[in-house]
């Protein structure tokens, strides 16, 4: 039976429902948990997070993919309790947001070691939690080009994806030629890879979204809601209309079957204040209404938020 790993165990794909494919329960730089200014009690974190997940569930959200990965605040015991409390399926990631957020222990590791570690987190579980990873996170370090460590992580991710059947999700889709060369050399079909953040305000112009789709990759417009219209927009914000038009143009080019959309929001950010007024529920409160107003029909909306993520997340064997 087609299935997906969630933190509470594998579930049949048909139970995923509407998926937010790139989100964060709480993302922070390694070490932020040691900072006294930003440190939060477990109670504060629950208090900030539970209402957002409950609302997500009430709106009809089924599954929340936490794209946080190792070293950036991932906490699977906590995710398991959030999932049990709110009824939202939570999919956790193995892998790293980028080479530049991998702690030294992992930064020095070989491809074989990294691949073995990812496979263990997908098949045996993450630490002693019993929760298994359902996706592999990789990414491009700051600077716009893949570093040697980024490349080792991508190669290890490709091997772990082939061994286990779970997909790969990227932070940034810049320098995609190098990424695709690695996936092709390893023999990973590109429809097992979601190239994320093609819509972000810093990199959209440099990201070859159409080319990636033509090579067979999946394409993530997954920073929806980081808008210049916000009260205190982050540096990667973009005008709302411009992002929406970019998304609709891409779909209009015949790539509906390749797109995924998400908000990349933090329920309770770690070590930084987060972006005020932006939550995963942007998907329901703003994005889906905008898509309807732009003339997208319900079948297309279903493809973007249900069909495509189900195909992407289902473990291949
Ligand atoms: Zn993210």
UniProtKB/TrEMBL annotation:
<comment type="similarity">
    <text>Belongs to the metallo-dependent hydrolases superfamily. Phosphotriesterase family.</text>
</comment>
<protein>
    <submittedName>
        <fullName>Phosphotriesterase</fullName>
    </submittedName>
</protein>
<keyword id="KW-0378">Hydrolase</keyword>
<dbReference type="InterPro" id="IPR032466">
    <property type="entry name" value="Metal_Hydrolase"/>
</dbReference>
<feature type="modified residue" description="N6-carboxylysine">
    <location>
        <position position="137"/>
    </location>
</feature>
<keyword id="KW-0479">Metal-binding</keyword>
<dbReference type="Pfam" id="PF02126">
    <property type="entry name" value="PTE"/>
</dbReference>
<dbReference type="InterPro" id="IPR001559">
    <property type="entry name" value="Phosphotriesterase"/>
</dbReference>
